[in-house]
Amino acid sequence: MADFQTSTQRAKWILTPQKLAERYKVANQKAVQMLEKCGTTQVEVDASGSLTYPTEKVDAGDQADKKLKPLSVDEERFMRAFYEAKVQEVCSAFNFPHKIQATALQYFKRFYLQWSVMQHHPKEIMLTCVYASCKIEENHVSAEEIGKGIKQDHHIILKYEMAVLQSLEFDLIVYAPYRAMGGFVSDMEEFVQARGDEIQKLENLLKAATAEADKVMLTDAPLLFPPGQLALAALRIANGALGVVDFDRYLENIVSQPNYEHTASELTKFLDDIESLVKNYKYPSEKDMKHINRKLKSCLGHSSSHDDSKKREKRSKHKSHRSSNDTPNGGAPVG
Amino acid sequence: MPEMEQPKKVADRYLKRELLGQGTYGVVFKATDTKTEETVAIKKIRLGKQKEGVNITALREIKMLKELKHPHIILLIDAFPHKENLHLVFEFMETDLEAVIRDSNIFLSPGDIKSYLLMTLKGLAYCHEKWVLHRDMKPNNLLIGPDGQLKLADFGLARIFGSPGRKFTHQVFARWYRAPELLFGAKQYGAAVDVWAAGCIFAELLLRRPFLQGNSDIDQLSKIFAAFGTPKADQWPDVKKLPDYVEYQFIPAPSLRSLFPAVSEDALDLLSKMFTYDPKARISVKKALEHRFFTSAPAPTDPAKLPKPLRKQEGKASHDRHDAIRVVSPPRKLRRLMPERGKLDCVKSHVDKDQQAPMSLDFTILAERPPNRPTITSADRSHLKRKLDLEFQ
User: Fold this and answer.
1) Span B2-91: which CATH code?
2) Taking CB atoms and an 8 Å limit, are A157 and B53 in contact across chains?
3) d(Cα B111, Cα B122) in Å, to the nearest integer?
4) What pLDDT is attached to residue B271?
5) Which of A171, A256, A334, B179 could link B193 by a cystine bridge, Cβ 3.0 to 4.6 Å?
6) Which chain B residues are Cβ-neighbours of A139 within 8 angstroms?
């Protein structure tokens, strides 16, 4: 679908930085309250999309529960960053096109606008988002294949699919910067009247910008800016290193087009903002992750999830191949 | 307590009413949206148990309709899971173009036909503008609202197109509406496939019967060639490159006039452009809308004044005939309109008492057994799924 202007993405899924910060805070607080009241944060899900929230604990003075500390907003961000990088890893392992990866990332980001990682384990959501993205982008891979390919129980994917779709409010078409970048580069060819050598240089620029766009996709930028601006930002970063075109002049050319909605200085400001999101992107260290993951495991409640994974194990065909680390809530996600 | 007597609301919002039909992947029932007080149609799709999770056809329909908002595209109001079913809530539509075409009590004037075609093409033009191929255009999928407005529905086969080199399956459309390039196995195709199908719908409106009724894919091509002649090299230079191309014995083209003796010159000209063999040369929907057929007299009929199939309450007058032909009318149209198979007889016997009887029963007034329309059969569908699995490059 080539019309971003009338899309659900533009209408519903591009937020102001303030709003985004607020959404993350609210999602975190809900989970924190749940932990206080119920002693666990795990929201159970079934394949028909119905959710079961933890029940309030009767005895508030339980000693073991007192130790439970919720994740902070920043720790949640690290947890998401870790699994967003995993989305890219999984997609590259399957050689999926960039579009699949970008859609999966968008789904993952949108999902955690409504939920805390303490309520739905990001590993399970990550796998489900990759599966749903393949399905929606018409690159069908069965849940079993995905599960097998990365040694994970595919039943989890099928269990979470409806809950994820519903959290996405069934807005399933998402726009990524990649196609827009291709468009800008062919536009640049015309703009600089490229020939021979220059055409090759522009092709290199597109390649470099694609790698930059992969980085942009890991930041909050996809929830804050339209795909066209993400594309321009990635191109500008790549062009900064390669020096293929006079980018400022090219931006002026863009804003001079009839009906373009921004001035040159506005557009430059947006691109600066996106660039600084990329520069300030933080990926958690192994040490960070060990600590956060330990906290997350205790919030999700060891015992109940243990039973759950045992049940699944009985149904799974490849139980013998799975180590305890493969159970959804078990094991450190590092590595 | 009076509240207990109230029918239960689905998802606290929709008051369930009668069953409208049985779909390929669930049932459709009528409901009242208590939020807006409007009548809606809810498609229930069974969940769970499937190895491949949520039904892909339903997901395609949702993802497309969430983005497509147009007066001639069916409005998807809501989508939600509820008790093991995925529910899709649509605006309620009274009937469909197939029912209009088949109703022998309806006279379609040239202005009526123009109006139906105009609305079809407007909806289709919007899809193509958004780079969406419908891929299942047929009268049964063109629904008609209480205000006479025609809307494209059933986007379960729709695809986004426009990526260069992207390959698709050719197993799309009900056979009678399938473009020749699809029948020759084309994997890379575009908006022209929908135009061919729209041409078939135009012809069907004029003839009041499906135009090219092949009973197999090969036979479908024979029917096409019998109508328009075998394509000559200069007419369609690329045909020989198509994967399933086979040479057919030369058949000369009869004059189009002989097939449509009663239609205007403008109508004939537009038909010939929509049935152009070479998909590259076939008229686009946008250009078709600019065709003089739509500006020349007679003007398209105001949709509110278009003839509609007899509704149940109005059908009482023709009670006798109704009874007489009940026997010959087969339980057709299971897809959208028929009540459950088993309940058919009981519904039929209550037809005259029930003011709100499903519109499907309108067909019982048909005096003649209409031909069975091929849809994409289950065999085709499994083929389609395999194709879709493999088609990504």
Assistant:
1) 3.30.200.20
2) yes
3) 16
4) 98
5) B179
6) 392
Flag whether pLDDT at B118 surpasses 70.
yes
Mean of all residue pLDDT scores within chain A: 86
Residues A157-195 pLDDT 10s: 989 999 999 999 999 999 999 999 999 999 999 888 878
Structural domains in chain A plus CATH codes: 9-173+285-326 (1.10.472.10), 177-279 (1.10.472.10)
Asked whether A229 and A274 are in contact (CB, 8 A), the reply is yes
Question: Could you state, in chain order, the average pLDDT of each consecutive group of 10 residues for chain A (335 residues)?
Answer: 85 97 96 88 85 76 65 95 95 92 97 96 94 92 87 88 96 95 92 85 95 96 97 96 92 89 93 97 93 90 48 43 40 41
Q: What is the mean pLDDT of residues B20-30?
A: 82
Residues of chain B with CATH 1.10.510.10: 95-304+373-390
With cut-offs at 50, 70 and 90, classify the pLDDT of residue B128: very high
Q: How far apart are CA B251 and CA B228, in angstroms?
A: 9
pLDDT value at residue B331: 36
Long-range Cβ contact pairs of B44-47 (< 8 A, separation 24 or more):
B44/B85, B44/B86, B44/B87, B45/B85, B45/B86, B45/B87, B45/B88, B46/B84, B46/B85, B47/A47, B47/A48, B47/A49, B47/A162, B47/B81, B47/B84, B47/B85, B47/B86
Residues of chain B with CATH 3.30.200.20: 2-91
Residues of A in contact with B69 (CB under 8 A): 6
Looking at the complex, report in whole angstroms how far the Cα of residue A309 sits from the nearest Cα belonging to chain B. 19
Residue B129: list chain A partners with CB under 8 A.
3
Residues 18-37, chain B, touching A (beta carbon < 8 A): none
> Does B63 contact A at CB distance below 8 Å?
yes
Residue B319, pLDDT above cutoff 70: no
What is the spatial distance between Cα B220 and Cα B178, in angstroms, rounded to a whole number? 8
Is B136 assigned a catalytic role?
A: yes
Beta carbons of B48 and A48 less than 8 Å apart: yes
Interface test with A, best of B46, B51, B52, B169 (most A CBs within 10 A): B52
Q: Which residues of B are annotated as a binding site?
A: 20-28, 43-44
Nearest CB among A2, A97, A162 relative to B54 is that of A162
Give me the pLDDT at residue A57, please: 74
Chain A, nearest residue to B85 by Cα: A48
Catalytic one of B103, B136, B154, B362: B136
- Tell me, what's the pLDDT at A42? 87
- Contact check, Cβ <8 Å, A143/B52: yes
- Do you find a cis peptide bond into B298, omega within 30 degrees of 0? yes
CA distance B391 to chain A (A): 8
Cβ-defined contact of B51 to A1 (cutoff 8 Å): no
Q: Enumerate chain A positions whose Cβ falls within 8 A of a Cβ in B.
A: 1-3, 6-8, 47-50, 97, 131, 135-136, 138-140, 142-144, 157-158, 161-162, 165-166, 170-173
Cβ distance of B67 and A158 shorter than 8 Å: no
* Identity of residue B59: L
Q: Which CATH superfamily is domain B95-304+373-390 in?
A: Transferase(Phosphotransferase) domain 1 (1.10.510.10)
